[in-house]
Amino acid sequence: MNVTIRPSAAHGTVQAPPSKSMTHRLLIGASLADGTSTIRSISPSDDVLATVDCLRTLGAEIELSEGFCTVKGGISVDFGREDLDCRESGTTLRLLVPLLWRGGTPRKLRAAPSLLARPTDVFDVLAAEKQLTFQKKEGGFLASGPLTSGDFRIRGDVSSQFVSGLLFALPTLPGDSTLTLLPPVVSRPYITMTLSVLRTFGVTVREENDTFFIPGGQRFSPVETTVEGDWSNAAFLDALNFVGGDVCVTGLSGESAQGDRVYPALFDRLRRGFSEIDLSDTPDLGPILFIAAALCAGAHFTGTARLRTKESDRIAAMTDALARCGIRTAVGEDDVTVYPGVPTTPKTPLCGAGDHRVVMAFAVLLSRIGGTITGAEAVRKSYPDFFPALGALGVDFEMN
To answer: Under DSSP, is residue 137 helix (H, G, I), strand (E, B) or coil?
Structure first.
């Protein structure tokens, strides 16, 4: 699906969508609980639906209604024999593998080619050390255990989702465990979010100097809760103010554990002048910060290497598009400099690269200069209502 956007300023108030990262974690916690949980404010993005389908395959009874869902938990890795289909959702895969390790029978997690290409080094090393199964097979991965309690040491510089998956699985084992992260640790706010969700379900984990002390034999308790607004996706709506808009985003909690809640402060820094910004903890903000930097006084971004292994190579996708809009960049091994400039309408469509955050960043820029994005359907991965939200704000576009 392509979208053609005509220059048009956005105006009005818009509600932030529910947090995708929080939704995944709440669904897993509810599926581990003995009893029925109610989760309000659910957005059926493609990634969230992948997690829902996998949890149903493991025996959770999940009913989705308009804006909320009920989850009857008690999942078992031995329930059924069907494959788990993670589709393109890295969060689904990484959070569920340690749960599958609790069982002795291999289960296959199917994955789209884009997900198969993403790094799994942490699980590969851990499986070898702990005599677990994690093997890449045609169209997916095989995973089995049995996972036993004990001491775990893993790299902290790849993805917080590997850590979060273990934090869900280890409390359910009979014995106590420790989980130590080897520095440097990136995306720490997502680990904090996981700890917050665990507390919601009555699970205790103590952290001290990058080591987590995890009592075994814990049980997840059913809850009634509401998914908070998504700071990551809200940044793309708020960025419309860089291109002549007058937009107010509501429904965000200032007390949130989401790391991307720092985006207003980063936007303010860009407005004040050339900035030095480290993306190690906030890689999902990279695409929209590149756009904002180009429209302000430019910026030097560090901690960018991980942007190459997201849904796309976000550095390549963004710098290519910026170049075709007349904006200069300089790319290093772990840094990107975006120079300020006056963007011009691209002569050819911008390729969305199958990446939801790339498409949303392009949409913000094109609302100022006009142009076409190919593969715009990628927004369904995290924010299926993104273009309807733009339309409600007055952005002029056409799907074709």
So the answer is: strand
Q: Of these residues, 47, 238, 260, 284, which one is catalytic?
A: 284
Whether 53 sits among the annotated catalytic residues: the reply is no
Q: What is the pLDDT of residues 264-312, one digit of tens each?
A: 999 999 999 999 999 999 999 999 999 999 999 999 999 999 999 999 9
> Is the whole model's pTM more than 0.90, yes or no?
yes
As separate numbers, helices (DSSP H) first and strands (DSSP E) second, the chain gives 13, 22
Q: Is the pLDDT of residue 92 over 90?
A: yes
- Cβ atoms of 209 and 3 closer than 8 Å: no
Closest CA to 355 of 398, 316, 321, 310: 310
CB 345 within 8 A of CB 371: yes
Instruction: Report percent pLDDT > 90 for the chain.
Output: 92
Token output for 283: 């890689």
- The helix (H) or strand (E) run that includes residue 265 is helix 263-272
Pairwise CA distance, residues 289 & 346, whole Å? 19
Alpha carbons 74 and 16: distance in angstroms, whole number: 32
Please count the other Cβ atoms lying within 10 Å of the Cβ belonging to residue 345. 14
Q: How confident is the model at residue 104 (pLDDT cuts 50, 70, 90)?
A: confident
Token duo for residue 396 = 């002029």
Reported residue count of the chain is 400
Task: Return the half-sphere exposure (C-beta side, CA atoms, 13 A cut-off) of residue 90.
Answer: 19
